């Protein structure tokens, strides 16, 4: 097998591995009651005592890689550890999980994407522009809880965004993290997480509206910013 063919085979194999990971996550989500499974795991974390934070971080990392929504886990941080330490542990867990997914996206898909766009000058220009403004883009997307956190982790791995900008920009998760952890602390019971009854208190509803408002503003901001960035990049190729 020639060298180019070997590289193509390796790239396709990596893409197949990532596709299989996504497929497994989707099938598992349909076959199993994910919320109940998470609650069972979180009850186990609660029983670990001083080792609970380690178990919590490991579970959060695995969930992030497998595209399992993190809202329930984030809120559980408030139930298990309180607002302050819950926010700290969730921030650590989310950053680590996002970084693992970023590496997976970069290792499994980046070379495939590069070959696909190498003959397209416009796509290359946009990719370089995204890399140049990586910190701002990551920060704005992290400020928006509306945008899919787990999918963005892999998507950023495919771009030229540097690891440094990615990690620093991911600090934008902190405001949303604190608010969701605070919501969890108001619930105070793992068994109540994810149930509609928990959202009846005025205090909880206020926090939820704040989260939605911040998410909407950040989403609009990142959409406008990306549109301008793409337009500027495309103009340089004309």
Distance between the termini: 40 Å
The number of distinct β-strands equals 0
Q: What fraction strand?
A: under 5%
Largest sheet: none
Low-confidence segments: none
Structural class per helix/strand content? Answer: mainly alpha
Order of helices and strands: HHHHHHHHHH
The number of helical runs is 10
The chain-level mean pLDDT equals 77
- What's the shape? globular
Rounded to an integer in angstroms, the radius of gyration calculated over CA atoms is 20 Å
Number of domains: 1
Helical content, roughly?
over 70%
Description of the structure:
The protein is mostly helical. It has 10 helices and no strands. The chain has one domain (3-237). The radius of gyration is 20 Å and the shape is globular. The chain crosses the membrane at residues 79-103, 166-186, 206-227. It holds the Pfam family VTT_dom. Residues 68-185 form the VTT domain.
Brief descriptors of the model:
single chain, mainly alpha, 10 helices, 0% strand, transmembrane helix, VTT_dom, TMEM64
Itemize the secondary structure elements and their pairings.
Layout: H1 3-31, H2 34-46, H3 52-65, H4 71-117, H5 121-132, H6 134-143, H7 149-158, H8 163-169, H9 173-187, H10 202-237
Short description:
This protein is mainly alpha-helical. The protein is built from 10 helices and no strands.
């Amino acid at each position: 097998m020639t060298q180019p063919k070997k590289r193509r085979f390796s790239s396709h194999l990596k893409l197949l591995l990532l596709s299989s990971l996504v497929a497994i996550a989707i099938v598992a989500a349909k076959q199993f009651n994910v919320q109940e499974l998470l609650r069972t795991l979180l009850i186990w974390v609660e029983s670990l005592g001083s080792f609970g934070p380690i178990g919590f971080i490991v579970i959060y990392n695995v969930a992030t890689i497998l595209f399992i929504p993190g809202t329930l886990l984030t809120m559980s941080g408030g139930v298990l550890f309180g607002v302050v330490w819950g926010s700290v542990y969730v921030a650590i867990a989310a950053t680590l999980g996002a970084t693992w997914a970023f590496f997976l996206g970069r290792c499994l898909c980046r070379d495939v994407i590069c070959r696909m766009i190498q003959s397209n000058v416009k796509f290359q220009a946009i990719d370089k522009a995204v890399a140049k403004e990586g910190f701002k883009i990551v920060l704005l997307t992290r400020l928006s809880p509306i945008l899919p956190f787990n999918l963005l982790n892999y998507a950023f791995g495919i771009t030229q965004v540097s690891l440094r900008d990615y990690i620093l920009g991911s600090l934008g998760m902190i405001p949303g993290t604190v608010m969701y952890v605070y919501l969890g602390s108001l619930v105070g019971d793992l068994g109540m997480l994810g149930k509609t009854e928990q959202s009846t208190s005025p205090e909880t509803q206020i926090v939820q509206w704040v989260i939605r408002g911040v998410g909407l503003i950040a989403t609009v901001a990142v959409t406008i910013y990306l549109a301008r960035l793409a337009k500027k990049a495309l103009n340089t190729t004309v």
